[in-house]
Specification:
By secondary structure, the chain is an all-beta fold. The chain has no helices and 3 strands. The protein has strands at residues 22-25, 31-32, 68-71. The chain has a 3-stranded antiparallel beta sheet with strand order 2-1-3, with no helix packed on it. Mean pLDDT is 84; it is low at 6-12. The structure holds zinc ion (ZN).
């Protein structure tokens, strides 16, 4: 059995996402950048979207985190 060269463990991470990935609010297009965290909710820089607390909401419109979608290209 063969595995792709770039395969990696995906425990607790949504398929196709990485800890560095930015997420965009589906309601107001606010972007969560894990390198910046979220000062509003006192999320420290370097916090992946995956580990945000369940009660975290969009700093722009207070939508739940489930409304966010991954941004494959980031914004760099
Ligand atoms: Zn929003």
């Amino acid at each position: 059995m063969q595995f792709p060269a770039g395969s990696f463990e995906r425990t607790g991470t949504a398929a196709g996402t990485t800890p560095e990935m930015c997420f965009e609010c589906g309601v107001c297009w606010q972007v969560y950048d894990p390198t910046e965290g979220d000062a509003v909710a006192q999320i420290p820089p370097g916090t992946p979207f995956d580990v945000l607390p369940e009660g975290w909401t969009c700093p722009g419109c207070e939508a739940s985190r489930h409304r966010f979608m991954p941004l494959p290209d980031g914004h760099g």
